[in-house]
Amino acid sequence: MKIVFLLSMPRSGSTVMRLHLNQFEGTIALPETHFFVFMQRHGSLDPNTPANREELADRWVRFHRIRKMPFDKEVLRKRIIAEARSWKDIFLITLDVYRQDQAPHITDPLWIEKSPPHIFHQAAIRELFPEARLIFLVRDPRAVIGSLKTMPWSTTNVYALSRSWNRALELTPADGSSITVRYEDLVREPEATFTKLGTYLGVPGTYRAPERVKDAVEEKNAFSGNSFKPLSTDLIDKWRNQLSTQDSDLSIIQHLCRKGMARMDYELVHTGNDPNFRINLLGQQFRFLLTKAFSRSAD
Question: Where residue 285 sits, what CATH number does that domain have?
Fold first, then answer.
């Protein structure tokens, strides 16, 4: 089996990359599954036990990411109950049900799975799929955090988001065992970037970006609208209008992420004398720790 995991922070352009990788012949780049998040949550249940398998099948088809899939969920549920004996089986059956519904003509696909949370589940990925290839997508933390602050499902705490970006970058290897792409390079030089990715994935040939990409799941996603537009550099500096000067967003991000930004060749911009920087940073640190304490007490 040929499988690739596309790993990144949320709002890094992974949907754009997935939709365009899906244009390569013989590839199936499916929507987000968050499978390893689900596995961590329900890992105490052994799929090899019939009662557990049926319970997991019921929970999996009700899982929010699977509910959005275009295929018949009852087909998936029945196949898991009948065929699965391990967590890997549940994942592979899910892929095959998706293939039969969306691309039955592709019998031996190159699978590409992208779920942003999976960047924090690499050990589990390697345990189930040691042969998998990994693509890491990195975007300027100012752009990532600026975008996340506008999402209703995300925290607006810039301190917390900066920590997450740093952690994700720390989990992005620089040893040549995988391939890392910057979002900015992707939109500035799409054909060169995707041709390089195609070579890495074993799909040689020069890539030509289509005028429009389609996807049954993402077209219903209110947060994926930009992914269907022609690739352009328009969003690279959008963060300049998204970050709050009053809350010292830019100063905090550049202070906390400066080492990672240097590693990825993101230039710092001058923020001037920000008299509120220290108090805003301490305030966000306090709120982050308070939220974390409440979360632990709830568990």
Answer: 3.40.50.300
